[in-house]
Amino acid sequence: MKKPVIAIDGYSSTGKSSISKVIAEKLGLIHLDTGALYRGVTWFALQNCTDADDAIDLNKLFSSLDQIELEFRNDHGELVLYLNHIDISKQIRTNEVSDNVSIVAKQKEVRDFLLHSQRSLAEKGGIIMDGRDIGTVVLPNADYKFFLTASIDERTNRRYFELAGLGIQADREQVKQNLIDRDKIDSEREIAPLKQAEDAIVIDNTVLTKEETIDLILSYIKKI
Ligand code: C5P
């Protein structure tokens, strides 16, 4: 039996990636955190494609995209993102990347660059992919589609504690503002905006734990 293709989209810090990781383990699927890819391109741009004011120069980035090689490697069960053979899994979570990623991700050149590899990974089935446009653009024929949402205060708490766990100092108000700003840019962009696919199951997990959200998603997968 062909293994399923599952799309998980939703707002920032709704737990998409950590939930997808567990579901992948339980169902024997590959997990692809597409947000990490956009963060990886942003990290590359911050290192290599800035102007005199240290801001990202998008034209420099577009002409350098062919120098970017992003790869996930399995390190003791953890998927670790490598950029040109260097582990950047911690760097992509910094505030600097979070503050710039949505502007980078709204560019057609960047989305086209990442689209092909996302689609080809799903060709054989057996994958759970999380992001913003998976059910609508990347994998419109996915077997299962979910769209996660939660209140802004709950999402702020989750991101704040996630950063603390990584040893990254953050100000709670700034974390909240970053989530609001990213969701706005992601939802309002022209190409592949963040939105619920018409056939997605919407889950508001404001008052659900991670385990409860996982159980709910698994119950739908068994039911459908
Ligand atoms: O999932 P995460 O919060 O790490 O994603 C970081 C950013 O990457 C999002 O705010 C969005 O701008 C971009 N992104 C995207 N499309 C995806 C996944 C992420 O535009 N499929």
UniProtKB/TrEMBL annotation:
<dbReference type="GO" id="GO:0016301">
    <property type="term" value="F:kinase activity"/>
</dbReference>
<keyword id="KW-0963">Cytoplasm</keyword>
<dbReference type="Pfam" id="PF02224">
    <property type="entry name" value="Cytidylate_kin"/>
</dbReference>
<dbReference type="InterPro" id="IPR011994">
    <property type="entry name" value="Cytidylate_kinase_dom"/>
</dbReference>
<keyword id="KW-0547">Nucleotide-binding</keyword>
<dbReference type="InterPro" id="IPR027417">
    <property type="entry name" value="P-loop_NTPase"/>
</dbReference>
<keyword id="KW-0067">ATP-binding</keyword>
<dbReference type="InterPro" id="IPR003136">
    <property type="entry name" value="Cytidylate_kin"/>
</dbReference>
<keyword id="KW-0808">Transferase</keyword>
<protein>
    <recommendedName>
        <fullName>Cytidylate kinase</fullName>
        <ecNumber>2.7.4.25</ecNumber>
    </recommendedName>
</protein>
<keyword id="KW-0418">Kinase</keyword>
<feature type="domain" description="Cytidylate kinase">
    <location>
        <begin position="6"/>
        <end position="222"/>
    </location>
</feature>
<feature type="binding site">
    <location>
        <begin position="10"/>
        <end position="18"/>
    </location>
    <ligand>
        <name>ATP</name>
    </ligand>
</feature>
<comment type="similarity">
    <text>Belongs to the cytidylate kinase family. Type 1 subfamily.</text>
</comment>
